[in-house]
Design brief:
The chain is of the alpha/beta class. The chain is built from 13 helices and 8 strands.
Length: 262
Amino acid sequence: MPFADRLDPRFDPRSSTINSLTAARKRLIVALDVPDTGSAIALVDRLENSCQWFKVGLELFVAAGPAVLEPLLKRGHSVFLDLKFHDIPNTVAGAVRSAAALGVGMMTVHAGGGPAMLSAARAALDGIANPPELLAVTVLTSMDSTQLNAVGLERSAARQVEALARIGLDAGVRGFVCSPQEVASLRALAGPEGVLVIPGIRPAGAATGDQKRIATPAEALRQGASYLVVGRPITQAANPAQAAETILKEMAAEIDRSSGAA
């Protein structure tokens, strides 16, 4: 299937033209939160036959630079560049254009940057052929009410996510990152064409780490997630490929169930 089709928010991986496990592979993003290129490529080697999407975040990008994307893209993988730009509008617009030129499929800005910044980020992609999906990060999954109150926010996480998503929608952004707990409300707000990328995914029994607002893969899909981001439960497993396949099977079962095939 062409790369552009996989990024079309109207694309339904539950289509009868592909099976549920193939659909799951198109919706799982593995977070390469590792310190260097060698570690990243070693993980990709082990997950080559299981996973299509890989996330490159701050740790790896700062250590290795844009060059780390080249081997992933050459192998035909899709890259989610998660750098969470948050700066004045002109600076973010320039960063968005530079990131788009790298050939990534999705990228992030912080919704907390405000309406002008989000509008500038979206406008920076105008005229670019096959632009990446622009995602506005709402509230980090490590933030709970205690953390939000500490930085002066009296709203609950759910209310803050909704407020930031509304700002993003008004700015023309149609993709968002939120925790599993806000997926249903954000799906209702963004509609069927909204692209919701959900971190904080933990299989039953997995350690939560520093994540506060989490869910299992099946729960997140059931609530309306477009893509799931999974890091440590896969990358720190004794057998990453086996861990990924377990998650993919859980996703596939939920896709079957929601499509009426199960």
